[in-house]
């Protein structure tokens, strides 16, 4: 008999593994039902004996070991919960996503013109979402993708499409067929012209080159920037997408995705909204989004920041401005791209953007576009916004195309090497903001400056110019020591001029953030504090303040209704006065 009076089946001399697991399970049940701090060894032993019908009088050490084992499990679970917090407003976001998914499906079925224009895009979109989602959202995406695919296969567009094996099709027909075959294969369906397409590309020599498909040849150089119909960003974006499709189908259109990616560094540093027109800015932004999507297989792969450092930090820098403008299409693309990167550096920005998207969704599940009467813009805005609300999950590691790895590593190595070579040449003067010290983006960004990118944001393209400057300095030194000293002592030397220009652009961009938000005294407190914090880490001179009018703008913030913003503005102005007087 035990102390509690219950009958025993056995009093073993040793504890087997099976019996030990039963005892551990009993201990776990006890700890889940009682306050652990008030449990005693005697109480646990008596309860376990009653549960497993085994006497533990001679096995108290085993009991204590198993109790400590369960305690360690409980503590590890608590630590894991602290390390990996619960997703932010997950249930609310999932409900918003389901409403938007239903909206997309409804508008495609209700309007034949919409279906003809966006059906293939929607099929691929539903497929990409179901890869990283689970539960009812995944089931809905699979169902919608299959239904739309079946309707598309029976549509008039496919019935009117004719592929004559005896004649040569046009390049436009080939491109359209590549896209449709790729999309249907993503959802596991077969295209009736798939074999004809593969046979067409097996011909030797090929009927068309990359010039016919893209309008430019990557082997000869970048696309022309003088095309009135398409910007250079649009041409590169379309080339990336088409070569990605061709790579997935194992066919060649005369060039590869790697060849297109070699021209991406030509766009570094990416330009802010103050340096481009609205259309060019949106084209550039979509190109950046497409680069991230192709490298991550449309969000399914985890992409470290070192793989795409320029894209990551540029997207971070643009989110505050997009929130002020309430541009839901670009904001959704930025958030979806940032969700492909690990880490918590961008978590607060993503949450701010997600909160705006949640509160801006309309009753029918859509988001308002820039042009409300344009269904094409409404469709793409809704697609971009809902993908931003999806909880990121990864099935592997980027890049999706292994051949891109050497090129991406080469770009990163060139950036680091350029930093080392140009560290002394780009050292700022006394009154110029130091990018290393302030960690601010030189082209008007708002996020921290990437250490891997550059000290001047032009390091990926300034190798030739730095060599030329070094040659000029060498010739100057050899010709006359006095002239070289005069060049070194001149405050308007070339590195300083470049930094001053970048500093002026950066300050104007920050000032534009405050002005675009409306009345300076009534803007968002978080935005104002962000700008003030960024400015406080910069070393400005009187010329910059006079040329930009920044001082007057910050003075208005002293009258802000938020006391913290008002105090921060006063402290910043005092800091500037102190620095100028000491100088």
Automatic annotation (TrEMBL):
Recorded superkingdom: Eukaryota
SMART domains with a match to the protein in the record: TFS2N
Residue ranges of the region described as Disordered: 428-496
Compartment(s): Nucleus
Residues in TFIIS N-terminal domain copies: 509-583
Domain (DEK-C) ranges: 17-72
Gene Ontology terms: cellular component: nucleus
InterPro entries in the record: DEK_C, TFIIS/CRSP70_N_sub, TFIIS/LEDGF_dom_sf, TFIIS_N
Swiss-Prot/TrEMBL keywords: Nucleus
Comp. bias regions, Low complexity: 469-493
Protein name (record): Uncharacterized protein
Gene3D superfamilies tied to this protein: Conserved domain common to transcription factors TFIIS, elongin A, CRSP70 (1.20.930.10)
